[in-house]
Amino acid sequence: MSADQNQDLKFSSPYTPNTENDRREMLAAIGVKTVDDLFKDIPETYLNPELKIPDAISEMELVKEMEKLAGLNAVPGDYASFLGSGAYRHFIPSIVNRLALRSEFMTCYTPYQPEVSQGTLQVHFEFQSMVCQLTGMDVANAGMYDGSTALSEAVLMACRVTKKSAINVMDSVSPHYRDVLKTFLDAPGIKIDSAKDGFVSSNESHACLIVQQPNYFGYFEDLTELSNEIHKAGGLLIVVTDPISLGMYKPPADYGADIVVAEGQSLGISPSYGGPYVGLFACKQDYIRQMPGRIVGRTKDTNGESGYVLTLQTREQHIRRDRATSNICTSVGLIALMSTIYMISQGKQGLKHIANLCYQKAHYAASQINDIQGYSVNLDKPFFREFVISCPISPDKINKNLLSKKIIGGIDVSSQTKNGMLICVTETNSRQEIDSLVTALREIGEEN
């Protein structure tokens, strides 16, 4: 190729699949004249904002700038952290990243070709198997985006199964999860009823009852009673669970759960400022055809050897879109792999030990804080690793004071409890850190 030809290619117009006539036809079908008409509802201030992007800098300067910004974060290691509320710090064995970050696993998409993806498919199969063991359910898929979207998919599934268009949600379910639910259920017009203050009144219009166990405030619900009530009304029980708690507590299946979802971040995934995570999704065998996402099955090849394939794929890529159970387009495979390695490396006894450490340390912290004048903790309610403190002043003021002592406090839940603070304690919190928190809270209480 000549230099002139190469120059012509370099500056030629990029390939665009739609001709001018195509665009005109599409705009006419929509009912507008120009592409700009599609954005008329957006205020000019936001449509063409002045971005004030700085001039380009070198890679070395950029690294220094990012290190400077990162240095502004208060991070565990330098600080004692008691944050929870859906993202948790747990010790991650070095084997997790050592194996998961091997180049063989760094695939960017679903392994459609089983003949070249046996390793990845087997990992997904093992992931599903362990999710079933944890939850006690019959079948599980190969992962969802995260816990909140897994819950939303579970609700859509329950509505398909029961052919109902209203749901009942306990008010003790995470407010973040409920916000995601509202977004998912707005378009299909599914009504959301809230069971307030633990009083549940499920009726025959409800496709399901959603319960979080332990709930957002760290406490356990009476699943036996709730399960009986929703099943009597002809609905399904959806349980949002905590996988670490299942190391020492009964699985949701023992209470008659029909669908179980969870956030898998606590299983070997760093909080990472909010993701990426992996959602766990399991259900009863009866509903497997309505389960969203990918399912990996194990079979035998012509030589009698075990082989793994994607199966029962009721997804929009494989069947008519109007019959698809889900539009989820990633298996979050790398994160699911990390969780799989974590569960394998810990084993049943390891998970039980971690859960027990969380339980014992959280209860030690709660009892010590409850003894401080001006503070109180409801020790009569069963809880796992999170609990609510009733404080003498606002949690915002307390957290600012704690931060000055290199302690990251809890989440403000004053909307549920006056001056309430949600505290989380895991196995990563040492006794020294807990005692430092107790001392700091006592000093703050005495000052106010």
Can you characterise this structure?
This protein is α/β, with parallel strands linked by helices. The protein has two domains: 80-91 and 347-447, Aspartate Aminotransferase, domain 1 (Alpha-Beta Complex); 94-343, Type I PLP-dependent aspartate aminotransferase-like (Major domain) (Aspartate Aminotransferase, domain 2). 36% of the residues lie in helices and 15% in strands. It has twelve helices and 15 strands. The protein has helices spanning 3-10, 20-30, 44-47, 59-70, 94-100, 118-135, 147-162, 175-186, 223-232, 333-370, 395-404, 431-447, and strands spanning 80-81, 139-140, 166-170, 191-195, 206-213, 236-241, 259-263, 279-283, 295-300, 306-311, 376-377, 386-390, 407-408, 411-412, 420-424. Strands 2-8-7-6-5-3-4 form a seven-stranded mixed β-sheet, sandwiched between helices. Helix 6 (118-135) runs parallel beside helix 10, helix 7 crosses helix 8 (175-186) and helix 10 (333-370) packs across helix 12. The protein is globular and about 75 Å long. The termini are far apart. Residues 1-12 have low confidence and may be disordered.
Q: Would you kindly provide a brief summary of this structure?
A:
With 448 residues, this protein is an alpha/beta fold. It has helices spanning 3-10, 20-30, 44-47, 59-70, 94-100, 118-135, 147-162, 175-186, 223-232, 333-370, 395-404, 431-447, and strands at 80-81, 139-140, 166-170, 191-195, 206-213, 236-241, 259-263, 279-283, 295-300, 306-311, 376-377, 386-390, 407-408, 411-412, 420-424. Helix content is 36%, strand content 15%.
